[in-house]
Each structure stands twice: as C-alpha cells, then as structure tokens.
Amino acid sequence: MVSKKDKDAENGLQVIAILGIVWTIGILYWSRNGDIAGIELNQLSLFCCNSVNVLLTLIFFASWRYTARENRVKDYLDEHFTSHDSVSLKQLIDQFKLSHAAAYKAQGVWIIESKTKGVYDPKTGIFARDLVEPVPSEIIDIESDEVPDEPPSFCPECGEKLTMDADNKEPWCENCKKHI
What we know:
Layout: H1 4-30, E1 35-36, E2 39-40, H2 43-83, E3 86-88, H3 89-96, H4 100-114, E4 118-121, E5 126-129, E6 163-164, E7 171-173, E8 178-179
Antiparallel strand pairs: 1-2, 3-5, 4-5, 6-7, 7-8
C-alpha cells in the first residue's frame, strides 16, 4: 500500500488544484470588464495576473494527476508482488499507459521505497525479486524421559475436560462420546 505521506501529498495537491481552478475562474470572471472590485487595472496587468493564475493552476493540476498515477503504480506493484516474483516494464507500460522512462522511474522509486531486494535485467526490462527464505521455526527437542506418562487432561479434538472412565481407567470425553 502507498504510504500515508504519499497519500497525503496526493490529497493536498488535489485540494490546491481545485482551489486554483476556482480562484482562476473567479479572477477571470471579476476581470471581464476591466476592473476587479473597484480597482481599475490596465489590460496588461490583468492579462499578466490571469496568465500566472492559469499557469499555476495547470502546474498544480498536473502535479496532482502525476502523484495520483504514481501512487496507483505503487499500489499495483505492492499487490502484484504478493503473488508474483517479477514484473516487467512492458507490463507497467501496458497497464498504465506510461512511457518507457516513466515506467522505469516508477519501478525504481518503488524498489527503493519498498526496500525489495532483487535483480533488474536492462535488456528485457524485468525486475525479479530475490526469493525470500522462510524463517525456520524453532524446533523443540523433547527428550522422551521429559514427556509425562500421564493421560491428557483435555480432549485434543474439542478441548473439553476429560473424565476418567471407571471401567477401563481411560480418559473419556463427554462431548465426543469416546475414549482418548
């Protein structure tokens, strides 16, 4: 999953882009007849202010869309590597309609941020992660003389407390209706 920092960046850029669009439309509306709230500005200053507003809005909007796409690629790679051991640049290009350079950069950023160890083949564009060795569980070595010869106190199947059968002197489970 995408980190909280990346998601917050995407959301912040979205808010700024939307506010920029509203601001630009407002400035264009109020400057349509040449004066903004009684301040009579000349045409050159209005053109300059409107141009700067439009450029800033486009920059914020493009940054938001770029960050959103980058976060989608990171999510895809996280999900993809749960069941696969490799991913190719062609796969990213086809899936997200990226250029070769953008796919290479997105894959590289994900590898660094996720700290995934692996090998990248520049000829094929395939990144194959190193196989993760499972941590061997600790083997408990019990000596045969350490195991008590007493019958179990609880039923291994249902977990109910066992009672001793008077006839056979064997543990009896009332719930399973059988000798253990």
